[in-house]
Amino acid sequence: MSAVTVPDIPVALSTSSAYPENCAAAFSLAERLGYDAVEVMVWTDPVTQEAGALKALTEHHGIPVVSIHAPTLLISQRVWGTDPWDKVDRSLALAAEVGAETVVVHPPFRWQREYAAGFVDGVALRENDTGLRIAVENMYPWRARTTRRSRPIEAYLPHWDPVPHPFDHVTLDLSHASTAHSDVMDMADQLGHRLTHVHLADGSGSVFDEHLVPGRGNQPCGAFLELLVESGYAGAVVAEVNTRKLDPERRELDLAEALAFARLHLDPVLEVSP
Question: Residue 162 in contact with residue 170, Cβ under 8 Å?
Fold first, then answer.
């Protein structure tokens, strides 16, 4: 007699994976390639900021929004103004309107001292008030090149690694882990149930955040996905792959490969019993 355990782990496409194409193009790609959902990176593209437009895309393509990525990146510092808590609050409101349960945020930058000082408590308070998950993403130390070596710069507060801090929900990004030279398997083990969101990409350990197609770097992407299945992970896996220098045909092939990789390693686990 056989028992098949099917992991309920949706594989989503980040709209950032379609850049420089827009949000609407990302939804079209997700539907055409067979992704389960989309993560919306809030960006200068007005569609990413407007619930009505996003709901129209979900209805047209039959693709739900699983998460909203708040505009807390260095290059999106002026999207929705410069007040970091306002960015988080507007992202939460947008998530609620489109039916997403998770908002992804980066740790505060070191120069955002007031925001950083209240970050842990502010995240917990907003989760309690909204019932949504704020999944704090792992980052990496910046490195300044000197004549002799690459010197790390601590750019984030309380730290670029959220694992040892008291966040209830964490996003684990495998490309960021590669740049930080972190062990993703150990991070997942330490996080346990606090690991609630995953950005799937690969890296070679470069000082640059590469976001390679999984399987093209040296991260244990396959083993990590299999660990998610074995551990009963209940979140989403979001393909966040850098395709910005590719033509549309090559971009589609890379995103199809990323999805195939995820499907392969999130396959049902077959247990055979007498």
Answer: yes
Among 158, 81, 71, smallest CA distance to 112 is for: 158
Using DSSP's 3-state secondary structure scheme, residue 152 falls into strand
Asked if the peptide bond before residue 20 counts as cis, ω within 30 degrees of 0, the response is yes
Least confident of 15-19, 156-160, 173-177, 250-254: 156-160
Q: Which of 219, 259, 266 minimizes the C-alpha distance to 240?
A: 259
Q: Is the N-terminal amide bond of 158 cis, ω within 30° of 0?
A: yes
Residues 77-97: tens digit of each pLDDT? 789 999 999 999 999 999 999
Q: Does domain 2-272 have CATH number 3.20.20.150?
A: yes
The bridge status of strand 236-239 relative to strand 195-200 is: parallel
Q: Is the pTM of this model over 0.85?
A: yes
**Tokens at 214, concatenated:** 């999984």
Q: Is 33's pLDDT higher than 60?
A: yes
What value, to the nearest 5°, has the Cα angle with vertex 140 and ends 170 and 136? Answer: 20
Q: In whole numbers, what is the pLDDT of the chain averaged over residues?
A: 92
Spans of all domains in the chain = 2-272
- Contact of 237 with 198, CB cutoff 8 Å: yes
3-class DSSP assignment, residue 3: strand
| Higher-confidence position of 27 and 5 | 27
Residue 70 and residue 93: Cα distance in Å, rounded? 11
Q: How far apart are CA 257 and CA 271, in angstroms?
A: 28
Most distant pair of Cα atoms in the chain: their distance: 65
